[in-house]
Amino acid sequence: MPTYRDEAVILRTHKLGEADRIVIMLSRRHGKIRAVAKGVRRTSSKFGSRLEPFMVADVQLYQGRSLDIVQQAESLGAYGADIAAHYDRFTSANAMVETADRLSDSEATPEQYLLLVGGLRALSRGEHSPRSILDSYLLRVMALSGWAPSLTDCARCGMPGPHTTFVGQLGGVVCRNDAPAGSPRVAESTLALLRSLMAGEWDVIDAASAQETSAASGLIAAYAQWHLERGIRSLAHVIDDSREGAR
Prior knowledge:
Elements: E1 3-16, E2 20-27, E3 32-37, E4 56-62, E5 68-77, H1 80-84, H2 87-103, H3 110-125, H4 130-144, E6 165-167, E7 172-174, H5 188-199, H6 202-207, H7 210-228, H8 241-246
Parallel strand pairs: 3-5
Antiparallel strand pairs: 1-2, 1-4, 2-3, 4-5, 6-7
Helix pairs in contact: 2-3, 2-4, 3-4, 4-5, 4-7, 5-7
């Protein structure tokens, strides 16, 4: 059975036996990888710390029947410590890797890998609000998976916008004729923020008010969880920036 190398983000780990660990990774070229890292829980392990969640590593693996075996691991991005030291970064990172784990069950691309690495790097450096980094990641990774929300024209009939109703189950903004009865309207400033989050326009995102950010976050969370067909458990622990700002 062949040996291969790849770059990978560590998504999660599970204990196995007394000293081993099962490592779930999203790799650049091989999609999601499930592998056994033998002896990494021993204090003498040479690469145990490189195989922790949120770390990026160059790994060499031996292809097994059900689980591959990690033979080597070299650090490419040591983001775990800086993320874990801040609760808001940690919870946002957990939501990101949980989403990546769900999406890569069916299909994973190099673009998804690069997007996750970029998001974790931004979180570790504190470049922007952790919730905004998470929101931008969720919108963009859903688009990469074929579920890009319509943010200008009607998602149902294609009528040119702008429209003021966002219905995640219908694919984004919808016109008055296609909006279900009782659908709440969304402020244009919130829709503009959603478009900026999709495009990565950080000067606009960083200048948004806490109320706009909170409203956009709610729409994004509902949209992502609808298309994933089950909740993202980590989102329940992510800090709402509007509540933080009020303290």
